[in-house]
Amino acid sequence: MHILIKGRNIPVTEALERYAWEKVERVARFFDDERTASRAEVELIHERNRAISEPEVAEATLFINGSVLKASESSEDMYASIDGMSDKLERQVKRFRGRQIDRWQGQLKNTPDVAPGVAQPFLVEEEEEIEARIVRTKQFQMKPMGAEEAVLQLELLDHDFYVFTSADTGDINVVYRRRDGDYGLIEPAR
Asked: What's the CATH code, domain 110-190?
């Protein structure tokens, strides 16, 4: 596994880099297979805002065969942040590997109950006009996948929604987590 460690607003000392590398490398033992092309990016951040009580942030992004796992932890000490981040990352990797094995055995337990080709209705509530600002922009590659795999990615990233390209239709779709714990699928109308 290739591991890149960089710092923002903090010099990455050799000891800090070695500590972060060892923690992420520990997670890499789950991906010893040469067929698994994987890399990790670790960013160590010192927040300069004095109002933030936990300014030392460790973020890790793990890329495994098109899947992305992310973990972030903040505390008053960078070493504690790295420890927390690696623990979160290890839990995610274990969950990811367990679901991969379940899927390989045809036993994916948490699949959404969505019929292919049927758009799920959703309500849009009107609100007062609010001045919206775009404060962050993200770009990512969207590989074609099925709704079940998109739900897996949604859970691994621990987000409320996931945008993906449907392997069946080639259209852009969205899966989202509903308040009742189930999942919804948004597809473009034809």
From this structure: 3.30.505.50
